[in-house]
């Protein structure tokens, strides 16, 4: 089993993302995680928008975040994402947000594949199954 | 022609809505306007969620905002909304955001009725047409 | 040791909080947690806005969320919050989001008290220490 | 008088920015405008974060938006920004959001320069006055 493949996206902090503490509000990191997850999905050759049009949803079942250092307006941060766990119907993604080398926030999100028509849990869509296994290093 | 009927909703400022200037970020007022608009629609007897399920969308075609005084975390503001103009396929809503008597922000939004199926412009849904005319004071 | 005191706030889902899946986007629950936490802080007799003005920040160090059922536009949900753990410099709050009796989302957030001037960790401000212990059921 | 200088930033639509209509919620365009404004300010040689640290705020006094076509998840849009009007204490920025050549949204925002210490209106900071005049094509 190989290392999972990492993708990294650069995100410029938006003024709207700061709060009156003068730092990025903690809820925004879930949105940044999602941007990095979108970039990782793109590596399967099937952007998430296309996967949804094919009738599948990758819904969020859980999330964990650990905030170490604040991000600020004026910063550009790098958000890394990789597949941390891959099961037949579930996946976990892991994330690290860094400014230069400094780790600001880390976290994971748990997801379930759902058939958009029935809104019931389903297996990983065949469309991306092999590619996700490859990205997971399996 | 009577005065249009006004509805007013109380909104407690959320910490997330502040920015590093220490005041509510200006984009949030469009969200607050929408909450008041939702309350006004409810007065037709058909909540907007039900109107959408009936196959109609009231999409936003334009907006104008004038910011006079900031809102802050710790404030509860009152957002008033009324029908400012009613045409066969279009409407304009007007808004005022106040803290006690002080006017903080005012604005308008312009909307077009759209058939959700065809995504084309349509007449005001019969479901709410009479009630909207009454709310508009027509 | 008694049960911690629970506070519950009612939140009407905002249209802006939905995403194209037709449900409330998962990042919004952290914002709703914060609203309930604000209400719990208010029970100390010192609203969080006042605590900040007194020179203290309660920064977020971690968060965990478990998503069970979606919330939708048209829903009003109840967000309950209580003190789950209270140490000399740290606290954990727990949350449950329900629509009627149904549990939609649960979670916790971990916090550190910080001196706003030095931005260094500090003990629970004397202003609210006794009241927080009481709320925690200690 | 020359043409004002235009800056353009590419923005990838975030899933969080969509709503249950399946398109980008209208409030997000003000946030995108702000990103483009930040990029334009950077052309003065003094990023807005630095201007704030120098004790000046460029607060929003008004906004106008015209929504022509929706943006969708999966799109990358280009947001253009330029100085539309420059007075001694006030400025107006104009914006266009396009997907390829198609104009999706246009708008303007009106701003007032404020001394961060006194929170009173002030003249354009000397730091950026000449550069803003040059960007405005004056």
Overall description:
Four copies of one chain form a homotetramer. The mean pLDDT of chain A is 96. By secondary structure, the first copy, chain A, is an alpha+beta fold. Chain A has a single domain, classed as Thiol Ester Dehydrase, Chain A, CATH 3.10.129.10. Chain A has helices at 28-42, 48-53, 126-135, and strands at 7-12, 56-67, 76-86, 90-99, 102-115, 120-121. Helix content of chain A is 22%, strand content 40%. In chain A, a hairpin with a 2-residue loop joins strand 4 and strand 5. In chain A, strands 1, 2, 3, 4, 5 and 6 form a six-stranded antiparallel sheet that branches. The first copy, chain A, is globular and about 45 Å long. Chain A binds chain B through residues 15-16, 18-23, 25, 27, 73, and chain B through 15-16, 18-23, 25, 27, 73.
What is this structure, in a nutshell?
The structure is a homotetramer of 138-residue chains. By secondary structure, chain A is of the alpha+beta class.
> Residue-averaged pLDDT of chain A, rounded?
96
| Total tally of structural domains of chain A | 1
Question: Which sequence of SSEs, written as H and E, runs from N to C of chain A?
Answer: EHHEEEEEH
Quaternary state reads: homotetramer
CATH fold type of chain A: Thiol Ester Dehydrase, Chain A
The portion of residues forming beta strands of chain A comes to 35-45%
CATH class designation of chain A:
Alpha Beta
From the 3D coordinates, which CATH architecture of chain A would you assign? Roll
The chain pair forming the largest interface, with residue counts per chain, is: A-C, 19 and 19 residues
Low-confidence stretches of chain A: none
Distance between the termini of chain A: 5 Å
* Structural class based on helices, strands and sheet pairing of chain A: alpha+beta
Q: Please report the total strand number of chain A as a whole number.
A: 6
CA radius of gyration of chain A: 16 Å
CATH superfamily of chain A: Hotdog Thioesterase
């Amino acid at each position: 089993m190989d290392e999972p493949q990492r993708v990294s996206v650069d995100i410029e902090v938006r003024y709207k993302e700061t709060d009156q503490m003068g730092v990025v509000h903690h809820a925004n990191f879930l949105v940044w995680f999602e941007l990095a997850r979108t970039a990782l999905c793109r590596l399967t050759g099937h952007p998430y928008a296309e996967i949804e049009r094919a009738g599948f949803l990758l819904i969020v079942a859980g999330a964990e975040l650990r905030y170490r250092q604040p991000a600020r307006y004026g910063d550009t941060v790098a958000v890394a994402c990789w597949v941390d766990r891959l099961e037949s119907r579930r996946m976990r993604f892991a994330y690290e947000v860094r400014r230069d080398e400094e780790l600001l926030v880390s976290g994971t999100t748990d997801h379930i594949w759902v058939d958009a028509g029935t809104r019931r849990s389903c297996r990983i869509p065949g469309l991306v199954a092999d590619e996700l296994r490859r990205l997971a290093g399996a």
